[in-house]
Write a structure and sequence with these properties.
mainly alpha
Length: about 210
């Protein structure tokens, strides 16, 4: 059986369980050939196959991001798709890839920023994660990316602040935490209830870095 035959759409399923099962098996077996076949499916003419393939790839990335880093260029190409499902799926995959190969993701910094500026809520959420995971890699990347993330936290919608602060946290260091905390303290004025509690928790986590 071809790996593509195990996709949800190939099985006539409308749920994600087959894709999740396939991803778990590919990751457990470190099946490079199977993962490559799934990556090739990103460029199928069938939108359902494309959507299932990007789902499988980022699910593999949750298990082991090193297994999908060879496809960073493919994920970047997806950011230009007219199919929003592929855009945010590609962004999730880039965020995961950054944990294993931040160099490859850093080379595509401008494409990620552009997709973030134009993207849906879920694309923006995962762009922040991709940028933060890349910035966490070393001082050079942090210096290039962190100011951009801070500017985003200053201007994003109030309801986005808690989640985006949490996603930015990996990039917070002893040398930049003061600016991060200052921005969050200012944004606390827009918050109440659960959102306020989440920001306070992020501030506490930042303070010990």
């Amino acid at each position: 059986m071809s790996t593509l035959d195990r996709l949800a759409c190939s099985l006539g399923r409308r749920d994600e369980v087959p894709n999740q099962d396939l991803a778990r098996d590919l990751a457990a077996q470190k099946d490079a050939a199977g993962i490559r076949e799934i990556a090739e499916g990103l460029w199928s003419k069938d939108r359902n196959i494309q959507a299932d393939c990007v789902k499988v790839l980022y699910e593999v990335g949750y298990f082991d991001p090193s297994l999908i880093v060879d496809y960073v260029d493919d994920f970047v190409k997806l950011l230009k798709s007219k199919n929003n499902r592929l855009v945010w799926g590609g962004m999730i995959a880039l965020g995961l890839s950054a944990r294993a190969n931040p160099d490859a993701v850093f080379r595509n910094l401008e494409a990620i920023k552009k997709a973030k500026e134009l993207g849906s809520v879920i694309t923006v959420d995962n762009a922040v994660a991709a940028l933060a995971n890349t910035a966490a890699a070393n001082a050079k990347y942090n210096e290039a990316i962190f100011p951009y993330l801070l500017d985003h936290l200053k201007t994003c919608r109030p309801k986005e602040v808690p989640q985006h602060a949490e996603k930015t946290l990996p990039a917070v260091t002893a040398s930049n935490k003061a600016g991060f905390i200052t921005v969050l303290e200012k944004r606390m004025e827009d918050q109440s209830g659960g959102g306020l509690a989440r920001i306070k928790k992020v501030i506490q986590q930042a303070q010990v870095r």
